[in-house]
Automatic annotation (TrEMBL):
GO molecular function terms listed in the Swiss-Prot or TrEMBL record: amino-acid racemase activity
Spans through the membrane: none
Species of provenance: Streptomyces poonensis
Protein's recorded name: Asp/Glu racemase
InterPro entries: Asp/Glu/hydantoin_racemase (IPR015942), Iso_Racemase_Enz_sf (IPR053714)
Domain of life: Bacteria
Pfam families: Asp_Glu_race
Family from the record: Belongs to the HyuE racemase family.
Length: 234
């Protein structure tokens, strides 16, 4: 064990992701001391230049360096748009640095699921999720193919009610032919509040990135027994 209350820094691009991640850590990894860093211009500036510029990559690396120099023993980026910066960060620092949904994708691929569905309420999140799943699959489940089906429900971005959001997501999944999926992966932290309701509607496990990240870091920082089993629990 590193210490009783390891310091985990989370770098956010939107306040909603911060709230979702904090709730996940309070439930899954309450031993952690959470340090939230918010740069609410990260997404807008990336959209303005059509992606990640060198300047934006350096900006995120400075944020990661800032929290590590401040004593963070692990870092979680809650914005999937900046995930590629993590690969560079891992060459610069020894502490664990996680992409927003990386632990969820690894848990899904390591599990018994032959067919997984990825659902989102914003279009860019879908191909980004599929790309990560396909990149991780050879290492995580060599010799075991996985069928990936996707669904998009822009209607799910509006409702504040979790059950209504879940119904929109379920409708999109059924329309996309994903009704027989063994598990559903939520491609955005903002959809996490609908996880339980969506699982009840579909009757299959629904995995979310924030909870999976909290369980992964709990295992890494405390060597908690049963980490692998906990990782695939929705």
């Amino acid at each position: 064990m590193i210490e009783p209350q390891p310091l985990v820094a989370m770098i956010h691009a939107v306040p909603a992701a911060a709230r979702t991640a904090q709730e996940a850590f309070a439930h899954e990894f309450p031993q952690a001391t959470v340090w939230n860093v918010l740069d609410d211009r990260l997404l807008d500036d990336a959209r303005a230049v059509g992606g990640l510029s060198d300047a934006l990559r350096r900006r995120m690396l400075r944020l990661i360096g800032h929290v590590i120099e401040g004593g963070a023993q692990a870092v979680l980026l809650t914005c999937s748009s900046y995930g590629e910066v993590v690969d560079t960060a891992r060459t610069l620092w020894d502490v664990p640095v996680l992409k927003s949904d990386e632990a969820m994708f690894q848990a899904a691929l390591a599990g018994p699921f032959a067919r997984v569905a990825v659902v989102a309420s914003t279009a860019p999140a879908v191909p980004a999720a599929v790309a990560q799943l396909e990149a991780l699959a050879p290492a995580v489940r060599a010799g075991r193919p996985v069928d990936i089906v996707t669904a998009l429900s822009e209607s799910a971005a509006g409702p504040a009610d979790a059950e209504e959001t879940a119904r929109h997501l379920a409708d999109a999944l059924q329309a996309a032919g994903a009704g027989d999926a063994d598990a559903v992966l939520l491609a955005q932290y903002s959809l996490t509040p609908a996880r339980a309701a969506l699982s009840a509607l579909l009757g299959v496990p629904v995995l979310d990135g924030a909870g999976a990240a909290a369980r992964e870091l709990r295992g890494l920082l405390t060597r908690a027994p049963g980490r692998a089993e906990a990782a695939v629990t929705p």
